[in-house]
Amino acid sequence: MTRACPGEIMHTQAIERFNPWERERDPNRTYYSPDEYYYMSNFSRKRPKFRSNPENLYLDIETKRVALKVSPSVVSLVSYSGEEEIFQGSGTIIESDDNSGVILTSANLIRSTTDQHAIADDIKVVVYLLDGKLYRGQVVAHDLHFNIAAIKIQSDSLLPTANLRHLDDSVTISPSQLHIPEEKSFQLHAHSSSFNLIPGDTVIALGRYSISPHDLMAAPGKFSLDVCGYDCRELFRVTCRITRSGDGGPLVNRHGEVIGFNFYDLFLTPFMPINIAFKWWEHYKKYGYSTSNDVMDVFWNRELRRPWIGMEMTNLYAASLHILDKVIQKFPRIGKGVIVEEVIPGSSAETAGICPNDVIIECDGKSVQSFLELFEMMWDKVGGSVELVVIRGIEGDPLHLTMVVVEATPDEFYRWPRW
Residue 176 pLDDT > 90, yes or no? Predict the structure, then answer.
């Protein structure tokens, strides 16, 4: 066996580390601006920026363009309980009129440091915009299951708002689609109201730093099929590497449209799809919101009902090849649907007769295209029942099952670690 000399190894490593967007000011010395030096001396460990992750050091031109497009609507937030700081994160302005604006962010901003099932007492929220201008924020709504909060600020002028785009997480697995020209597959058309997101697609997590000069931060990555492991099963996952300062900030697509909101975790970056966050916000605007700090009072408001589905599901295209092979051979016209990965014992899903590896193709007479679509259908039927059509590998014909959509209780709510 021929062994490489040390010089060859170093050369190979240098090639692997090569980044065409890297630009050193001076290869012979380290230089820091006054702002960089102040940050490293005072906050680099307590409040790291995205640049503390090597993947975010040198951004390509497309990432920079997208980040700059969204930048005006990205804010930083700091929360206090009395005089004690609780959290610092990011958020997105989603609405604005002549005298106020609404920001969506993470509920970690207002969680109690001693009881994650409740919000902190005597909350004060400070919001910083792109220009560094400070606003006092008012918590107008929050949800500790979805881990999102809405903050209102008063302004005497219109504020820049983000472009929101619903996710379409459906992808057909029908072999007939191989005949569609590649350039037409999975593209966002001008007339489309949703953005088709498939594993491997490029996304960018954004945030704004809470210390002056309130730098914009960006972390590019890919959409991933990996599970998040949280009790909130509606979360998706990306490979973007953010920091605490980016918790609650927007996830955007390559067009600069907000498709979700990020949460910080040491080992992964989960995000809440905009479909669910926006539906939650529209629900609160329609039915109002309890001003109580007691999460139980908020939860048991009868207008604020959420489904507890009692099963782990994902899109059909994510299933193993041998399962897809059986489905397609028996039902060649089925190209989309939702596959059940796990059924929780004692749940209404188990009572309805749903089993692991079942493929749900219809809900109340409507074809099921994706996980997000099915979840929204069931949300609208909380407390009632839905008629499901499922296909099962060992059965000859589709099965018709009736499932009660149970209202979630606090026991199904919380597991949001605060790193």
Answer: no
